[in-house]
Amino acid sequence: GALLVSERIDREELCGTLSPCSLSFEIVVENPLELYSGAVEIQDINDNDPVFPSSQARLEISESVAAGARFPLESAQDPDVGVNSLQTYQLSANPHFALDVQTRVDGSKYAELVLEKELDREEQRELHLVLTALDGGSPPRSAHVQIHIDVVDANDNAPVFNQSAYKASVRENTPSGTLVARISAYDLDDGPNGDIVYSFSSHTPAKVRELFALDSATGELRVKGQLDYEETKLYEIYLQAKDKGAVPGMAHCKVLVEVVDVNDNAPEVTVTSVYSPVPEDAAPGTVVALLSVTDLDSHDNGLILVQVSDVNDNAPMSSQDSYDVYVLENNVPGIPILNVSATDPDLGRNAHLSYTLLQGDPTVGHIFSINRENGTLYLLTSLDHEYQVEFSMMVQVQDSGSPPLATNVSVSVFVTDLNDNAPTVLYPHPNTTATYTDVVAPGTPAGHMITKVVAVDADAGYNAWISYTLLQATDPSLFSVGLHSGEIFTARQLREDEAPQHTLVILLKDHGEPVLSASATVSISVAEMVKEVFTDLTDMAPANDPRRHVTFYLILAVILVSAAFFITMLSVGIFKCYKWKQSKELFNSSRSTLYRTPGPFHHIDAVRGGFTPPNFYHQVYLTTDSRQSDLLCKKPFTSSPLGSRQSTMRNGEPGLYHQIVGTASRLPTPAE
C-alpha cells in the first residue's frame, strides 16, 4: 500500500500558479470491498528567482508634476507560490521618490513610484534608481531592474479618467470581439496635447494582454482570447490614457472583469465494476459497481445545492450611534461632509440598505441631503456661523426586507466661525450726515474721559475681539485711546491756546486671520462757554444742509421760551415773597423761614447721546409755606461749557436743560 514517486515532480509545471497543487487518485480495497479517494499535495520550494520583463526601465516625468503623483512599474514574475512567491519590492534611497507596494485580488504584488518631492529640471535633469523584487523564501531570492528617469517639461494638463475604477462582468466562452467595458478620459489641452491614446499599463501581465484587446482610440476593451472561469475568476486590468504631447501626460485606471461561470462542463461519472458478470443468484444488496460524480463547474452549475432561505431578522447596525461633524462657514455648496456607515448580516434584499434624513426640522431638508445608496451626507448650501451655529438631524438606515427593519443615527453638524465680519461702529454712527461733537473745557486734566467709541463684531471668539488705536489726530499728543475699551482720554492737560476743533480717526481691528478693520471719526470741541459750543457747532454745519435755518429758529425759540419762563417764575417768586411777608405780619408769627438747599443732581453718563458736564447745575430755593414748589431764586454754582452733540443742535433739540430740584415743608394756614 505504499505510494511512491515514479519521476521528478515540478510543481510549477503541473499546476502553474494554482495553490494548493494536488494530484487525485482512487484506491480499491478488496475483502471487504471498499473504494477510497486520495490526493497528494505538491508543496512548493523556493527554486525560482523573481524575473523582471527587462533589465532596464525608462520613465519621462515632467517637472510640473505635483507631489503625490504615482507611476506604475513593471512587475516581476515568480512561478513559486505562497511565501516563496514574490512578496515585496525595494527602491534605492533617493530624495524624490518613495515606493508603494500594492496587492492584486489574486494576491500578486506590484509596485508604484510615488513622487514625494517635486522635481526641478534645472537642478537635476535625470535620476537613476534601482528597483529590487524579493520573494519570501529563506534565504530570499531577488531580481533587479535599473530605472532611468528623465525630468522633462510636460503639458499643462494630463488626461483624467471619468472614474478611477471600472467594473464589468463577462460570461466565460464569450466569443472574441465581445465588448467588455468602455473607458473614457478627457484632456483640457488643445491639439495633439489633448488627443488621448489608450493602452495597457506597463505592469499588465502578458496573460491579460492575450485575453483582452484595447482600442487605443475609443477606449473599448474587448474579449480577444478564450476565457475560462475554471482557470481564472477575476481579472484586474490596469489601463492608461496618454496624450500626444511632446512630453505626454498620463492617467491610470483599472478595470475589474468578473468571469461568470457557464455550465459548460458535463458531470463525469466514473464506474468501477467489481463483479462482472454478476451471478444470477446474487443476493439483494450485493455491490455491483461503485460510482463517483464530479463537475468542474462552480456554484449551481457544479453542485446539488440545499439552500437556506434568509429571514429578515437582523436590523441594520451602524458603526456609531451618533456623529459630530465640524464644518467651516462659507463652505462651497454640494460638498460631502460625512459618510454614515452601517451593515446588515442578512442576505440579498434583506441586507440592501437605504439611508434617509428624517424630516424633524423642515430647514434641515433644504440644507442637507443624503445619498440613499451609500449614506454620504452632502451640504447643499453655504453655512453662516453668525446665522446658526448647530444643526441636529436623524438619519434612518433601513433594509429592504419585508417587513423592513431600521436603525436611527443622530448627526450633529457644528458650524465653525471664520473671520468674515469686520467690526461695526455703533457710535459715532458712520452712516449719518450729522457729525457727533464732544466738548471738553480748557484746563481739563490728563486722564479725563471725553467719549467712547462703541463697536461690535458679529464673529465669535478671537475673531470678535476688537482693539482700538489712534490712527490720525489734529494733535496726536493731546488724546489717547483705550486699547480694548475704545475710551478716549486726554493725554495731557488742555491749555487755553488749544485749537478749538479736533478730529480723531480711530482704527478698529479684530484679532481674526486675516485681520479685518474699520474706522471711526470723532470730533472734539475745546470750548469755555456753552455759547462757544453753539457757535462752533453752527459753524461746522454743512453749507448745503437744508435744515440749518430751521435749527437756528428752533434754538432761538427755546431761548425765548426759557427766558419767558424765567421771568414768569421770578415774578411769581416776588409775588409769593410779598404775600408771605403780609401773612407773617398779619399773624405775628415768630416762625422763621426755612430754606432747604438741594444738592447737585446726579450726572448722567450720556457719552453716546450728548451730556451735560457734572459741574453745571443750578441751586433752587423754595418757600416753606408753599403748597407747590414755587421758585424763589436760582444760581449756578460754577460755570462750565456744556457738551452736546452737533446733531442734537441741528435737530432742534434743546442743548441744555434746567433741572429744578427741591423740597418744601408746609406751614399751617391761618385757619389752622
From TrEMBL:
Which InterPro entries does this chain map to? Cadherin-like_dom, Cadherin-like_sf, Cadherin_C, Cadherin_CS, Cadherin_N, Protocadherin/Cadherin-CA
Report membrane topology. Single-pass type I membrane protein
Question: What is the name of the gene encoding this protein?
Answer: PCDHGC3
Upper classification of the source organism reads: Eukaryota, Metazoa, Chordata, Craniata, Vertebrata
Which species is the source of this protein?
Answer: Spheniscus mendiculus (Galapagos penguin)
Question: Mind telling me which SMART domains this protein's record contains?
Answer: CA (SM00112)
The Cadherin domain covers 53-161, 162-269, 319-425, 432-544
| Localization | Cell membrane
Q: Which GO terms describe its biological process?
A: homophilic cell adhesion via plasma membrane adhesion molecules
Q: Where are the transmembrane segments?
A: 552-575
The entry lists its GO molecular-function terms as:
calcium ion binding
Source domain of life: Eukaryota
Supply the alphabetized keyword list.
Calcium, Cell adhesion, Cell membrane, Glycoprotein, Membrane, Repeat, Signal, Transmembrane, Transmembrane helix
Q: Which GO terms describe its cellular component?
A: plasma membrane
Record bears the keyword Signal: yes
Q: Mind telling me what this protein is named?
A: Protocadherin gamma-C3
